[in-house]
Structures are given as C-alpha cells and as structure tokens.
Amino acid sequence: MARTDISDDPMASSQTTVPTTTDPILELRGVDVTFDMDRGQSRVIDDVNIDVQRQEILGVVGESGSGKSMFASALLDAVVNPGTLSGEVTYRPDPDTDIDVLDLSDSDLKRLRWEEISMVFQGAQSSFNPTLSVRGHFTETLKAHDYDVAEGLERARELLEDLYLDPDRILDSYAHELSGGMQQRALIALSLVLEPNVLVMDEPTAALDLLMQRSILSLLNELQDKYDLTVVFITHDLPLVAGLADRLAVMYAFQFAEVGPAREVVLDAAHPYTRALLRSVPNLDIPLEEMQAIEGSAPDPVDAPEGCSYHPRCPLATEECRIEDPPFETVETGHYAACYHHESTAKAVPFDIEDHAPEATEEWP
What we know:
Blueprint: E1 24-37, E2 40-53, E3 57-61, H1 68-75, E4 84-91, E5 99-100, H2 106-116, E6 117-120, H3 134-144, H4 149-162, H5 167-171, H6 180-192, E7 198-202, H7 210-227, E8 230-235, H8 238-242, E9 247-252, E10 255-261, H9 262-267, H10 272-279, H11 319-323, E11 329-332, E12 335-337, H12 345-348, H13 353-356
Parallel strand pairs: 3-8, 3-9, 6-7, 7-8
Antiparallel strand pairs: 1-2, 1-4, 4-5, 9-10, 10-12, 11-12
Helix pairs in contact: 3-4
C-alpha cells in the first residue's frame, strides 16, 4: 500500500515518502516478512518503512490479521521459523550509535531482546511458567543476563509498587494465584527489570475488562514518564490507545496506511480505512442499525490484490488505485497517508467521533 524506494539519495526517504522522525530510536526500511506455503509465498509484512521516535508512545492499530504482531516480532528479529525477515532494522540506543539488528550474533541478539528492547505478549498467563513463582521468573531473568540478583529484585519491588502491587505478595505467588490484571502488571514489571529503552506491547490488555484496560494504560503512561521509555503499543482497538499514544500508525494488509499525531489521525483521519475503522467501533449509545462494519474482508497474504491493497473495500477506488501502490503523502506536518484520494476521504467516509468513538478523545484537554 505504501511502497517506497530507499537509496543512497537522502531525498529518497523524505517526508513525502517515509514517515520519519527527528530522533528515531528504531528505523525500519524495506522490511518484509514472508512464509513459504504449499499454495505460494505468504507475505505478512510488506515493504514497511517507518521510524519510532525516542521516548514516544507509538500506537499500532489495525484489524486482526493485518500484520501488527509480525511487525512487533520484526523489531526484535524474533520472527519464528519458517518465516523470513529481510530489509533493515536499525536500533539507536543513543543518537550517535547505529546497531543493525538483523546482523547481530545470537549472543548480542539475546542481550538486545531484554536489556535494550523488551516485549510484553498477549495473554499474561501463557507467559509465565506455572512451576515458578513470580520471584523465580525475576531471578531467572536476572541470572540469564548476568545481572546482580539482589539489586535486580530491589528494582522488581520498585516496579511492582509503581504498578500498585504489593511486592511481598506478588513475588511469592504463582501466576495462577493472581487475577488477570495482576498477572499483566507483574509481566510488565518483569519486562522492565533489566531497564530496557524500548517496550513493545502486543495486545497487552486484550483479555482484560474495560476498567482494568484503562487502569493499565494509565499506569503505563506513568511508567513511560518515570523511566523515559519508548513504547510501541499494538492493538486492534484504536479508541483504547488513542488517548495514550503520541502517534498512531494504522496498519492494513501488512503495510502502514496512515501515520501521524494521535489527535490528528483521530479527529481528521485522511485514509478511508482509518475512518472506516473508527466508524466501526462498537458503542452502546448507537442503535444497532446505525453501526457500520467495514464491508468486505482483509486480503489473503498469499494473494493480495495489485495496487492499493484496500481498493476492493474502498468507496474512492479508481483505476490508478487498482494498478499502483500509493506512496505516503504529507497531509499535515508529521501526518502521512498512503492514499491517492486523501483529500476526499472526509466526504466519502463521514463519521462523527463523538457519536462513534468518544472514548478516543476523552484523555485530551
């Protein structure tokens, strides 16, 4: 949907083609993830180009199957076999240091994954070993990375307190003895015990009730401020993350369709898919007959359509859309959309944020 050619020419990655940032801690260029299947090659990340700004919260949103989790795995070079990851993933622990993530040795990659970039997976229960106490998980992690265990456990206690948990109770408990919200918070503390710079969260609140989701997002905001974290928060629920994120990156068919400041993307979405996604959010205040699901279905990763991947579902699609991928175009400063008709989307896909997703803006002044 937004193919770009990255070359030695500095203008090749200008703001009209790639959503760049001023101080990226992660930079992806031409990233692909493919799987060879009996019926053909499945492409689950397709020529992705994006920066993650240092100390920002980036919300990555899209329907199930859009490639969000594969994007998270690509950040850590953690795509499992038989998947193939290619392209460039550059990590910058400081502005003057470039680390080629895809060229690291196994030992350096192991260090990167917990000490520099950590990840919280969906479903805390499955992330814990049922035979180990929570303290045992912290101890094993610290030992595996040659950290001082006593100092690390003190940090664990501080992190648990930051997350409004009783360290004595949590550390001596097994995961099954904790509620879902407590498990998720304990897992967040575990992911931060080695003091990483980046925290990647893949649907971390999907199994929790709405009240606990909001509570964890509020706590995450506090942690990000206290520890100067960069957070990549992946979810299918755009309104949930809109009030937390500094920027939103909307993913469709294994590519990014729209990237920009959260407020701009929600209040003035430029891509028809983003507007359709916002319009389809369930809301108890809207009569059933007024709720509008996105027509059609997401494309097959083995047989994605030519041109813009969204064109079979798009009310604005023209012959140009069916033939060639649209590039990212600047909508406003720092706001980009991969759509030939971004200037016409508001009229073609109308929606009122207060009617369809008022919770997306409730955290804003």
